[in-house]
């Protein structure tokens, strides 16, 4: 059971410890399995001081005499977890093990790194740096440092001590002549570390407010308080501005332990890595590991993270992996348009046009509503026209979409725009396309007015004199009707929300509605809807398509409409 929990909730380091302890205590498994369990836990939580200490204790128990291996594992732990603000116990365990093995020089080297690291117990570390006074000075520092410090001491004293050496023999460079000289060297060793300790204290003080605000540094399924989230955000921003790259990465990982269930903190780390990957190419592997961990462990159903991961893999030349990621998240979150667009465009960039067409047609057929189906149809037509150079197929895709959604003005506009970019399209067909929306039952009068001016523009440039005259009269009639309705709405305020309507009057209005919604060809124009907006402009601006087929221009060119030049004759 605990092994299954470790797989499903890897941030619970106690599960890893419990699993390893059961295996070790009951002798149910060999030591290799214990190592596997602990290694699995360390991979999930590399910043867990408790887990590292359990792991190192097991290493020391099973390989007591292999000092080189134990030291390498301590170094591995310090590299992974040493910059954690609460890592003091890990450092102290390393120092204690080296001291027990009689390596004073190694103890000093560890202290040199620890004293330069801001940690919670930084004040006690300098106080414990007392082994220098009790050990021979030649054994606590490197030979190069000893030679330098001895030279400084003798330069300060003003004269070298008199030594009784055999004739022709020089004094060794690391020789300490007297106890007083040794004491002076030790004092200089401590003084040099005191400067480092002071600088570290300033770094701790700068971070102390943020560290005090962290009330729950461990993982829990319960949500964090808002003040906790705000503190983490402020701390991350401060570390990015004032800390090193490595410290910022460690802080992000600390944050992801407590805030693992918050997608925004994963995206913060991903963005942080992306901003620095150009100057640090080694961060590519780090970003890949973070994305994989976020999408396969903590957020299996978050589309944004998966889309980001797929884009990352595609950019770095792994399109097959990107397709696999998109396919998996689509099964988890079906009918999500962003995923559908990304899958189609990925296949297009891979050159599999047949797969693109199959995806488009499948998505259009399975769309849950007309709006999604129409948007997909427009993109499909664009793909057929631009990528596959099949204008007839593109027109057929739009015609089918108009049959499904006849009141979608964008579909009608796209059909017209497609025809305008085909040089052999006759004017009669263009006139039918620009008038197709107005012929639909329930067409919006405002859209009809815009398309009427578009029709007039086409007639002026491509049609004969009679067509231009009829189109102009029709457009002006629509504009006049809308202006009249706008003035009426402006001067007649709407009734209050709770106003009562007489039953007979309400019945009359209901009966009159169908007659007022007759087509323009019958000589009667559109009745204003109940919640109509105010339209005070003359509706003279020509209709601009939502998008263009970036092809060489056909015989038709867009021109601004000179409406202000025409007087109002109606």
TrEMBL record:
GO terms for molecular function: pre-mRNA 5'-splice site binding. Residues 467-476, 511-526 have a biased composition (Low complexity). Residues 477-488 have a biased composition (Basic residues). It is found in: Nucleus. It comes from the Eukaryota. Residues 467-526, 543-570 are annotated as: Disordered. Belongs to the PRP39 family. This is SFRICE_011111. It comes from Spodoptera frugiperda (Fall armyworm).
């Amino acid at each position: 059971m605990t092994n299954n929990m470790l797989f499903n909730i890897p941030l619970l380091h106690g599960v890893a410890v419990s699993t390893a302890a059961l295996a070790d205590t009951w002798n149910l498994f060999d030591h290799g399995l214990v190592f596997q369990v602990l290694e699995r836990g360390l991979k999930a939580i590399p910043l867990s001081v408790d887990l590292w200490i359990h792991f190192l204790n097991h290493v020391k128990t099973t390989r007591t005499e292999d000092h080189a291996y134990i030291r390498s594992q301590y170094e591995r732990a310090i590299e992974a977890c040493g910059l954690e603000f609460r890592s003091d116990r890990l450092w102290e365990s390393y120092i204690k093990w080296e001291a027990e093995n009689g390596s004073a020089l190694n103890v000093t080297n560890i202290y040199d790194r620890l004293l330069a690291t801001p940690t919670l117990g930084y004040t006690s570390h300098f106080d414990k740096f007392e082994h220098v006074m009790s050990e021979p000075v030649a054994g606590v520092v490197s030979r190069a440092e000893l030679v330098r410090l001895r030279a400084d001491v003798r330069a300060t004293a003003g004269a070298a001590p008199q030594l009784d050496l055999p004739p022709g023999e020089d004094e060794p460079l690391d020789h300490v002549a007297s106890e007083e000289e040794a004491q002076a060297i030790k004092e200089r060793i401590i003084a040099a570390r005191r400067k480092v300790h002071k600088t570290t204290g300033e770094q701790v003080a700068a971070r102390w407010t943020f560290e005090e605000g962290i009330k729950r540094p461990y993982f829990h399924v319960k949500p964090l308080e808002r003040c906790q989230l705000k503190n983490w955000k402020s701390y991350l921003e401060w570390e990015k501005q004032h800390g090193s790259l490595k410290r910022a990465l460690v802080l992000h990982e600390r944050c992801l332990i407590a805030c693992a269930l918050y997608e925004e903190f994963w995206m913060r780390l991903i963005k942080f890595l992306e901003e620095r990957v150009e100057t640090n190419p080694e961060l590519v592997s780090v970003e890949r590991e973070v994305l994989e961990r976020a999408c396969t462990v903590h957020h299996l159903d978050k589309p944004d993270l998966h889309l980001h991961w797929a884009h990352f893999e595609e950019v770095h030349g792994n399109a097959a992996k990107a397709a696999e990621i998109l396919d998996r998240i689509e099964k988890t979150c079906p009918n999500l348009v962003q995923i559908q667009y990304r899958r189609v465009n990925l296949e297009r960039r891979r050159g599999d046009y047949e797969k693109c067409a199959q995806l488009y047609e499948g998505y259009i057929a399975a769309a849950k509503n007309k709006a999604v189906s129409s948007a997909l149809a427009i993109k499909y037509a664009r793909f057929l026209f631009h990528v596959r150079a099949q204008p007839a197929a593109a027109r057929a895709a739009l015609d089918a979409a108009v049959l499904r959604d006849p009141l979608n003005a964008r579909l009608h506009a796209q059909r017209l725009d497609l025809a305008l970019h085909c040089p052999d399209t006759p004017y009669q067909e263009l006139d039918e396309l620009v008038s197709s929306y107005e012929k639909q039952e329930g067409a919006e009068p405002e859209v009809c007015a815009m398309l009427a001016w578009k029709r007039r523009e086409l007639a002026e440039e491509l049609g004969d004199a009679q067509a231009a005259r009829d189109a102009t009269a029709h457009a002006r009639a629509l504009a006049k009707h809308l202006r009249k309705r706008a003035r009426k709405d402006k001067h007649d305020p709407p009734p209050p929300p709770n106003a009562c309507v007489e039953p007979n009057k309400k019945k009359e209005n209901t009966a009159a509605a169908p007659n007022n919604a007759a087509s323009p060809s019958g000589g009667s124009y559109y009745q204003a809807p109940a919640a109509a907006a105010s339209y005070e402009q003359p509706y003279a601006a020509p209709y601009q398509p939502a998008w263009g087929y970036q092809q060489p221009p056909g015989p038709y060119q867009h021109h601004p409409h000179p409406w202000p030049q025409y007087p109002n004759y109606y």
